[in-house]
Design brief:
Chain lengths: 321, 272
């Protein structure tokens, strides 16, 4: 490391870059930049890109976990098997529904939460700190706690419904018609504060002049938010939606720890289904499904960016006189 | 009129936050309840004799001390390595006029979106070859790969916010890049570096999928150890809650430690 410093020095020791050789300085700078970047890139190549390629080749093999000797290439068979598997399509459908529903709910709730917390009362800072706790704590610890809360007979949730509001007890996680909704509830509990906090940061970065001008023009209440706040924080909204969409498609922890796909296959989403394939020992099949999840994520991201680009263009065209 | 309205909204805000945190309070409360109170048909809120038995049990029966140690070692070491690798890389993509600096940053970030199930299988196979299954080393390696992209991205955001003039002046004074990084950037960006390190720590602390695949006994971290309190027929809610509280407390401490930095860190990770 010191050698690098010493080596880098002479060209600059002579003072400011001379007019005559801007190219040399730039080249030197670029070389240093690549040197700084190199360790990180090498590690990522070895630990992320190589495994990805490895996984890709594996997806064309039959490779039983408990009998590795019979491993061999089988071409597209794993992919074909998946495409003919009804449970595979079911899990993909469930994952897409899941992602769209939870992200929509979280965006709406998160926006209201942000508006609610965007005030100058004493202790507002403490509220903002407290509300973010769910984002930072482990989905495993909380998922298990939620299972305790959703216990059909003795759980807190049913006690609140029954004793608190005089309602019928609900089946929560124990019935195939309600399990997915219950899972969505927990996911929204965990991630709505994340969205709220980011939207809040966006709202607070709106310059006071704009807010003041709006006030003078008597733009208030709902109009203030729909006409001024939302258009101004639109870029933030879009990025948050994108991140949450991808993370929702990848969901594993909460799904695995709370229902493991059940009851039946009512909550069997992509990553957990892929895990069950691993448990059965079909490593090639597992790799193939993993790749399909990756492709699904890419499709969603591209579709989203495409829509974004098109609405952006339409908005800009509308702005032209 | 409007002050009544404002006060009503303020109260609503407090109420929402309190209700939101009920599950967290509930796990803390459960952890000190005697087992027969926990398993009673109706929930109890205050009329019970607090007990520490579950905190004893989680250590005695589920070897939670080992899990805590494993978590601290794997997460701590991997966070350190991530920061050492991420800082120069983030500086290079943020500041050095690298051709396509933003492209590099985006490519690195895109790795964050990789689903765990895609890469966990190669990790599993390679760990098997090297005889590293169920060791701390394999988790450290995997957590480096998993934390690095995000760390580079957040750090880059922090570095972009620093004033450029100081560095330019230093460069004109003949300081080399490494000197600039160590003498200028490191002190100036210290808060940002700390926030990034804490975020990296948090992600790995809560990580579950890789730990589930790559460890099963000796090297299990806390999330995996917690899961062992449940089996098919029986759930030891008390032990589970005690373990969960131990696992959650450092993260809650982190939230209070970071306070206003959280929004910036999250926003940088999300937006810039």
């Amino acid at each position: 490391m010191t050698a690098l410093t010493v080596e880098a020095r002479p060209s600059r020791a002579a003072g400011p870059p001379r007019q005559g050789r801007p190219g040399a300085v730039a080249r030197q700078q670029r070389r240093t930049a690549y040197l700084l970047l190199a360790p990180c890139v090498i590690v990522l190549l070895a630990l992320a890109i190589f495994p990805l390629i490895f996984s890709g080749t594996l997806s064309f093999k039959v490779d039983p976990l408990y009998n590795p000797d019979v491993a061999r290439f089988v071409g597209w068979r794993n992919y074909n098997d998946l495409f003919e598997d009804r449970r595979f399509w079911n899990s993909i459908e469930l994952t897409v529904i899941w992602a769209v529903v939870v992200v929509s709910i979280q965006m709406v709730l998160g926006f209201f939460l942000a508006v609610l917390l965007d005030r100058k009362m004493q202790g507002a800072g403490l509220l903002r700190t407290l509300i973010i706790i769910p984002v930072f704590i482990s989905p495993i610890a909380m998922g298990l706690t939620w299972r305790f809360i959703f216990e059909p007979v003795s759980g807190l949730a049913n006690w609140i419904l029954n004793t608190g509001f005089g309602l019928e007890k609900w089946t929560w996680l124990s019935h195939k018609d309600t399990a997915l909704m219950t899972l969505m509830l927990v996911d929204c509990w965990q991630w709505t504060p994340f969205i709220a906090l980011i939207l809040l940061a966006g709202m607070q970065s709106i310059s006071p002049e704009i807010t003041e001008a709006a006030r003078l023009d008597r733009v208030r209440g709902v109009t203030f938010y729909t006409r001024i706040v939302i258009p101004l924080i639109r870029p933030v909204i879009m990025v948050v939606i994108l991140i949450r969409l991808v993370d929702s498609i990848r969901i594993f922890d909460l799904n695995f720890i709370m229902t493991k796909g059940g009851p039946g296959s009512s909550t069997l989403m992509a990553s957990v289904y892929d895990y069950t394939i691993f448990e059965q020992g079909h490593l090639g099949l597992m790799a193939a499904y993993g790749f399909l999840i990756l492709i699904l994520i890419n499709i969603v991201v591209l579709a989203f960016l495409n829509t974004l680009y098109r609405t952006e263009k339409a908005a800009r065209a509308a702005d032209q006189p | 009129m409007s002050s009544v309205y404002t006060r009503a909204i303020n109260i609503l805000a407090v109420l929402v936050v309190v209700v939101w945190l009920i599950p967290v309070l509930w796990v803390a409360l459960t952890s000190v309840k005697p087992t027969n109170v926990i398993n009673a048909p109706t929930p109890t809120f205050y009329s019970f004799e607090p007990t520490g038995e579950h905190y004893v049990e989680i250590f005695d029966r589920f070897l939670f001390d080992r899990a805590i140690l494993n978590s601290l070692i794997t997460v701590g070491v991997s966070t350190l390595i991530v920061m050492i690798l991420a800082l120069p890389a983030a500086y290079a993509v943020a500041r050095m006029g690298l051709m396509g600096g933003d492209t590099w940053a985006l490519v690195i970030l895109s790795l964050r979106f990789m689903p765990g199930v895609v890469v966990v299988l190669p990790y599993f196979k390679m760990a098997n070859w090297f005889g590293l299954i169920d060791t701390q080393i394999v988790l450290i390696v995997v957590y480096v790969a998993f934390g690095l992209p995000f760390a580079v991205w957040i750090l880059r955001g922090f570095l972009l916010d620093l004033p450029k003039e100081v560095e330019e002046a230093a460069r004109l004074d003949g300081l080399g890049w490494l000197q600039i990084i160590f003498r200028l950037i490191l002190p100036m960006a210290a808060p940002g570096i700390a926030v990034t390190a804490i975020f990296t720590f948090v992600f790995s602390w809560n990580e579950y999928l890789y730990a589930l695949f790559l460890t099963y006994d000796k090297a299990t971290t806390m999330p995996v150890a917690l899961q062992k309190t449940i089996d098919l027929y029986n759930v030891l809610w008390g032990s589970l809650s005690a373990g969960a509280v131990i696992q959650l407390l450092p993260m809650i401490a982190v939230v209070f430690l970071l306070q206003r930095h959280i929004a910036r860190g999250l926003a940088l990770g999300a937006v810039k």
